[in-house]
Design goal:
By secondary structure, the protein is an alpha+beta fold. It has 2 helices and 4 strands, in the order ββββαα.
Length: 94
Amino acid sequence: MPRGKRREFTLGDRQYVLNQDPIDGRCDVDIPDDGKPYEIWINPRLRGKKEMNVRIHEPLHGIHPEADDDEIDTEADQLTEWLWAAGYRKRSRK
Ligand SMILES: [Zn+2]
């Protein structure tokens, strides 16, 4: 992704932008009160299975904003195990 260009993506019926944050991950589920678009933040230092789990977990909050974190955790853990067992891995950028 080119620097300076924010990529938007749809989760449920909302448009989100992706940002970076030192916290592993978080996702707006309520209307942002600062006038900004809905955002998801991912820690860029995450790697491996943990990164996969966070990259599944956070958008699930956007798709299911009413779900509590335990439900999202369970779904994200199951999907992570499913994809990890099938051999999916992030390709390193060269
Ligand atoms: Zn969560």
